[in-house]
Amino acid sequence: MEDGYTTADGRKIGAVVMEMKNITLRFGGVVAIKDISFDIREGEIRAIIGPNGAGKSSMLNVISGFYVPQEGEVWFHGAPRPQLRPYQVAQQGIARTFQNIALFEGMSVLDNVMTGRLTQMKSGLFAQAFWKGKAEAEETANREVAERIIDFLEIQSIRKTPVGRLPYGLKKRVELARALAAEPKLLLLDEPMAGMNVEEKEDMSRFILDVNDEFGTTIALIEHDMGVVMDLSDRVVVMDYGKKIGDGTPEEVRSNQDVIDAYLGVSHD
Amino acid sequence: MVQSQTGADGLGSIPALLERNVAQFGTSPAYREKEFGIWQSWSWADTAKEIEALALGLINLGVNEGDFIAVIGRNRPYLYWSMVAAQSVGAIPVPLYHDANAEEMAYVLGHCGARFVIVADQEQVDKVIEVQDQLHQFEHLIYLDARGLRKYDHSHLHEFSHVQNQGRAAYDEFIEDLKSRQAKLTHDSTCVMLYTSGTTGKPKGVVLSNRNVIETARSSSEFDGLRQNDEILAYLPMAWVGDFIFSIGQAYWTGFCVNCPESTETMMTDLREIGPTYYFAPPRVFETQLTSVMIRMEDAGKLKKRMFDYYMAHARKVGPDILDANKVSAWDRWKYFLGDLFVYGPLKNTLGLSRVRVGYTAGEAIGPEIFDFYRSLGINLKQLYGQTEATVFITAHPDGQVRSDTVGVPSPGVEIRIADNGEVFYRSPGVFVEYYKNPESTADTKDSEGWVATGDAGFIEDGSGHLRIIDRAKDVGKMESGAMFAPKYVENKLKFYPDILEAVLFGNGKDRCVAFINIDLTAIGNWAERNNIAYASYQELAGHPRVLDTIQEHVEVVNRSVAEDPMLSGCQVHRFVILHKELDADDGEMTRTRKVRRRIVEEKFADIIGALYDGSPKVSTVTEVTYEDGRKGSISATLELRDAAVVPVTQKVAAE
After folding, report:
1. B449-496 confidence digits (pLDDT tens)
2. B525 CB contacts (<8 Å, ≥6 apart)?
């Protein structure tokens, strides 16, 4: 397990990329996360599941560096990670999508995806404003990356459409496109399938698998739909009331009594 | 080199035409495809290199002369190249409908015994792999888009670009073989095999020779004056004969450029960007475009709306005449010019049809309003009538003689004969060679003199010489008086009203005709909303007296128009009913492609037909329905039967 493992479908999973060590997160008197440890390995799809209020989103925010835990450490590439500003997190190769879509509604799909490239742009404000010199070449190169992602996610037909006019399922896909535009090593997805119908869920699952397969992106996701999680992920962390109650492959987690109790409820007799 | 059996100038095959195009206009674009948001283009010279590399790669994989190579995917340059590469190595390309399911594919692939299959993506790969155990001759699968295929077993799976690379690497080894194979191609070699979609029974493989394709491409290109700098948008299924003739036959003959859209969904945007000069679309596409224009005009500002209405009225009056170069007063021309400046021009630009010089529609009847709308804008939209077995062209409208109710005059080289029962027969250089492995069907369709039965009934109009198609021959009957009964002719006229979704005419062997009508819930529902008519269901709306009044008006207008036709005036609708349910494929009343199954409808609603004939004003009926999930239920209803005014016919029964 130290140097990775091979999945049932033959994918090679690499070494540990990120490790949570005894994380505890409090908001005043409320303990959102209590002493949780787990790791994320290179190339795997890692799911975090749990009932409402289990602390999943808080966990994701800890991973993304948005929340700083009171106790414990986040290890990234074999060293403890210092407190970072959001743009520094992005520069480290971590991108995310949000539970409540956070796109620029008035901008076109293409422009939204291009914002995902911002961290890669080096030319100055003036060069960009007048589209001179380095800015021009830079934009062309970045546009190509954006276009490849648009092609990958099959959203060519809405390239020039303002995001505000799109249906919910497509907005989710545009958000994924923007996250991918940053060419992340680690992609964090916060409920990528919330509020979708069955067909949209199937599409999104396909895209998540393809992203992992095609770009080798490590993915950590939070999801409510158990069927989807079990189908997609290599390993699953189960949380309940801020505590970790299970960790392992979907099969292991499915047969874990604590997990069954948390999901189905248990009588207190 | 002796080249027997080739065309006049040695251009006996598509690969030979390719060679000529490279020599004559090597640097002009042959293909464009939008990818990653940019139109990528390939000149004729580039195209020849790509095709050569692929052809060498195919030889390297072991393709023999006479093998069948199936090609499956949406319109992409690579797949067009695949077909030409297959031809250059002496194999026969077989394009398949990419939306066919795995079983349908299994039948066709098994029937032609394809050893090689070239597909677009994972979706198609999966389908072929699913059925490969049933295919004894199948060996290699070549795919274009590698996405999702990384983990597949690659012992029989090859990436398109790798096949090309191997071909390039083996250039010295195989080039002589390739050249000698190409030199063997003649006018009589098989150019392509296309499977007819098969509304009845299993699909049949129509074998078309180089002569069929090249002769047809030559004469039709001359007929419409197609040029080397024309542009087309290739978006109709590659397995359809029309696409093969337009995007390969005519494109290679005249050397024009074939543009492939980025994806199916972007077709309208791509159309606007390319602005084709030669354009083909089935009536459905024109209908949808017109509807979207009309809906957007409803939301436009007052001034714009008034301008649109005013100038469109003028365009309807003089537009078609100007297009046909008829006499139009200078004042009307001036007004039309202004209209073009303010309305028609911008509108055509929005539709992507500004540059269309030759536009065709075919497949089914197009509503006269729709047809006239496009023509009045100055778009040279014409109709053609064709079949796979004829290599498309049987008749077409010549420029300047375009009418919505005919399908034009026989195309160059085509002879037409009308049989006693009204069925249309034709003979032409485009007549297919045979149905593959099916001599009985070949003999049934094509007689020893080369006449082919179309299965459609029609007649040649006196005076103009235009062909008019009335109906499928097997549906045409005789009324009691001996007058011709052609249900589709009347049904189409009824269906041209947006309010009417479906119509079924009865009267074979009877003294008068009656009709079933299905209203269009979208159109009538919209009307009901605007007129504050509340309704809870289709059934309630269908029985509303005002709806009945509206439909009655439509029926009576249709009757007047039918009466004008001496041969078919007996088909006027004497009584009609608006059915309490929509005819539905789940209930077996229609096919999945939404064609009415007359026999079943007739049996199922025999009580209503009886009531229509015996003159009763109302009928109560119970109908069994099947829901989408397979459960059954029943609807009962009391339907009002209406009389429609008919135009008395001076008994001039068609005595021919």
Report:
1. 999 999 899 989 888 899 988 888 888 888 888 888 888 888 888 888
2. B535, B541
In this predicted structure, what is the pLDDT of residue B628? 67
At residue B6, the pLDDT reads 47
Nearest chain B CA: its distance from A122 CA (Å): 23
CATH 3.40.50.300 fits A1-93+184-264, yes or no: yes
CA B651/CA A218 separation, integer angstroms: 82
- What pLDDT, on the 0 to 100 scale, is given for residue B432? 94
Option in B38, B148, B263 nearest A157 (CB): B263
Whether residue B262 and residue A156 make contact (CB cut-off 8 A), yes or no, is yes
Across the interface, whether the CB atoms of B37 and A148 are under 8 A apart is answered no
Q: Which segments of B317-437 are extended strands (E)?
A: 358-361, 381-387, 392-396, 409-410, 415-418, 423-427, 434-435
Same domain, B55 and B182: yes
Nearest CA-CA partner of B289 in B198, B356, B242, B222: B356
Alpha-carbon distance A144 to nearest alpha carbon in chain B (angstroms) = 7
In whole angstroms, what is the distance from residue B305 CA to residue B300 CA? 6
Chain A residues with CB-CB distance to B150 below 8 A: 213-214
pLDDT less than 50: residues of chain A: 1
| Cβ neighbours, 10 Å, residue B178 | 21
Q: Which domain holds residue B550?
A: 477-643
> Which pLDDT does position A195 carry in this prediction?
85
Tens digit of each residue's pLDDT (9 = 90 or more) over B180-213:
999 999 999 999 999 986 555 688 999 999 999 9
B572 and B585 in a common domain: yes
Do B447 and B548 belong together in one domain? no
Q: Which residue has the higher pLDDT, B630 or B214?
A: B214
The pLDDT of B506-534, averaged and rounded, is: 88
The answer to whether B36 contacts A147, with C-beta atoms less than 8 Å apart, is: yes
Q: Which of B36, B150, B263 sits opposite A213 (nearest CB)?
A: B150
Query: What CATH number is associated with residue B409?
Result: 2.30.38.10
My answer on whether B587 and B532 are in the same domain is yes
| Strand residues in A77-144 grouped as ranges (E) | 79-80, 94-97
CATH number, domain of B55, equals 3.40.50.12780
Chain segment A176-185, per-residue pLDDT in tens: 999 999 999 9
